[in-house]
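$ ./design --mode recover --in tokens.txt
reading tokens...
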């Protein structure tokens, strides 16, 4: 029998005097177990039968396993994978809305013909190397220049795909107001595989925030366009911005999707984000647990925001191309007032200035406390931009065990929702 030890990625949450929830962040699994079935201080001392079950689910591992080193090695593999490429393109940083919480300046801007041609030359480099290419259109509102910027790039990629056998997909982050049935149908010809669309609460609240130039609200139009997406088999992530003002009516959004057939509802995902200026984040977080359950009860996929997926900015193969040809690694910035990381050259090469790319990648997991943190497989060491600029250690949860426990509780809630739990 091999010597065993408890996984460093376990979290133990006491539910009652006799019931324990144990969550493993590496395997994203939860078990509910009576305290008398295990040694709470060290699961590897549990009775033989229980120990075998714990081992099978990754809650205990062989003593020779270095989980931290293995996970860091896996992270580096993901980070440096260049078998595919991800281009995030800003046709503009302007927008047809002026949401109060948006940090963008919404400068009048449009990618010009010369920059479009540089992007095309980059696309040629990627697709002739037979790498898969994911386009993500961002902004600003990318659909402001659908015909002038988006479509020419996608048409070029379509022709190249036929010539070279290279493959590509396209998705976008949009406010959803400028989608039309015609555009959705056209985008499907270019392997349209998803859109993220934001709502600011239920109809009345949303319409107070998002009113275009005609003075009318935008909620009904955006909901109609989301329906059109899923009717066409295109997945949509509905990001709901949460504030103290709208938190009490967000559950009513379920009414807007109640009549969709089950197969169309399955293409929807609802992601809840507290806006960054909101001061009462803990109050909103508590309320969101109930709201998520309401969405799930209505047959909708919903969860509080999770960082389990690797951030695109942490991958060598990913870049953001601004409308003027400047390069960045991240979209969560004010493009008008942030120093660029590089530029796209005339021949379509990516030129990273001042070692910006290598510095960003090297900052991943440089923080020693991250390497043995119990939720490392969830946050992957947090934001590399913040880690790069931190001089005295960095944790996206401020090393606060209460915040980390809340992340674990949210993960357990998701596991219950998706049936990833066991009882021992």
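writing sequence...
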């Amino acid at each position: 029998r091999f010597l065993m030890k408890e996984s460093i990625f376990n979290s133990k949450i006491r539910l009652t005097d006799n019931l324990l929830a144990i969550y493993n962040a590496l395997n994203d699994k939860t078990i509910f177990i009576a305290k008398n079935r295990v040694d709470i201080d060290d699961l590897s001392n549990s009775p033989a039968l229980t120990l075998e079950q714990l081992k099978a689910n990754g809650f205990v591992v062989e003593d020779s396993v270095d989980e931290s080193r293995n996970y860091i090695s896996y992270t580096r593999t993901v980070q440096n994978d260049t078998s595919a490429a991800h281009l995030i393109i800003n046709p503009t940083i302007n927008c047809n809305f002026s949401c109060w919480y948006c940090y963008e300046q919404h400068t009048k801007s449009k990618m010009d013909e010369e920059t479009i041609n540089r992007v095309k030359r980059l696309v040629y480099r990627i697709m002739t190397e037979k790498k898969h290419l994911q386009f993500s259109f961002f902004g600003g509102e990318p659909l402001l220049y659908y015909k002038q910027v988006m479509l020419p790039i996608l048409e070029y990629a379509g022709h190249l795909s036929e010539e070279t056998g290279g493959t590509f997909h396209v998705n976008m982050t949009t406010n959803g107001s400028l989608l039309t049935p015609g555009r959705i149908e056209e985008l499907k010809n270019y392997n349209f595989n998803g859109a993220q669309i934001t709502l600011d609460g239920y109809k009345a609240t949303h319409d107070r925030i998002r009113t275009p130039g005609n003075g009318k609200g935008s909620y009904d139009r955006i909901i109609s366009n989301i329906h059109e997406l899923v009717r066409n088999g295109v997945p949509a992530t509905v990001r709901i911005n949460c504030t103290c003002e709208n938190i009490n009516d967000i559950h009513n959004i379920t009414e807007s999707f109640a009549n969709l057939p089950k197969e169309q509802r399955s293409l929807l995902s609802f992601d809840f984000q507290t806006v960054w200026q909101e001061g009462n984040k803990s109050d909103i977080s508590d309320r969101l647990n109930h709201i998520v359950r309401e969405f799930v009860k209505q047959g909708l996929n919903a969860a509080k925001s999770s960082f389990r997926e690797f951030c695109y900015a942490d991958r060598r193969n990913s870049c953001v191309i601004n409308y003027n040809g400047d390069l960045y690694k991240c979209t969560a910035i004010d493009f008008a007032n942030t120093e660029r990381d590089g530029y796209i050259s005339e021949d379509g090469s990516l030129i990273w200035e001042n070692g910006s790319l290598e510095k960003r990648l090297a900052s991943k997991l440089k923080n020693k406390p991250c390497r043995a943190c119990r939720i490392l497989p969830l946050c992957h060491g947090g934001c590399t931009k913040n880690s790069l600029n931190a001089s005295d250690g960095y944790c996206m949860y401020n090393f606060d065990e209460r915040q980390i426990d809340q992340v674990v509780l949210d993960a357990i809630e998701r596991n219950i929702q998706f049936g990833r739990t066991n009882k021992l």
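exit 0
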